[in-house]
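Hey, resending since the last one bounced:
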Amino acid sequence: MTDILFSLLGGVALISIVFLLVHRFSQLNGKATGLLVALLVIGIYGPISILQWPGGDVFAIHIAIYLVTVYVLGIIGSQRDAQRKSGGKAFHWGPASIVVFFLFIMAADSVFIMLAQQGVDNKLAQWLLPEPETGGKVSSHFPGTVNRDFRQKEGEYNAYLERIAAQQERDWQIRKGWEAIPVAGKTATFKLSVADKTGEAVVNAQVDGKFLRPGNIKLDVPITLTEREPGTYRTNLILPQPGNWKLMLIIRKDDIVHELAGTTTVAEAND
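The structure tokens again:
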């Protein structure tokens, strides 16, 4: 359940302890104690989240669970105050059932967020999900897709087709790939070799590009390749997460612009 469930459970436990201490050692009743603790939650968790922004969904579930916890504790505290005054029982099944219900909601929401962000654990996914027909490892991680074909959708389609036709007529011989299998979080070397249709190396070109993470533009990695040998360009980079990545490359030589697209797979670190 990782960090989300830990922070939720830890926060609920801390809020409960603070509420009980304030309610026990002050003259405040249950409702007043709940209001004070709610203000403390907002005043502490709000600035922390701004400084280390976890994402809107994570922030929302934390603040909701924390405030609901305060609300439930305020109800229980108020009822206990009233029961003490009337000489009734300190425990009642009603507040207890409310606590159990919200604990269940908290756990379920934590699981949903964890699955949406990280997918099912690899070992659990291999046990639950069928083997992929194309081979490889089973993964439930699906960050969504971001359409990268903007050229074909913004009035530049004809120009795009003309560039593609020019590239086909140019018939450059291009080879690209990794010097070793790339592993998430570790430095890898990407290499590109460019030659014209006669086999002569294309030298002194400017090669730029970007590795694109589907569904998460924040993880995109821009690259610039440097010519180490005539017609051979290299760069060292780190791709932060395993799985599929898209690649877009632009080769500029004088007034020629040559575009490439591709996909690659990054292995998971075995640390």
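Residues 56-86 form the longest helix (31 residues).

Sorry for the duplicate.
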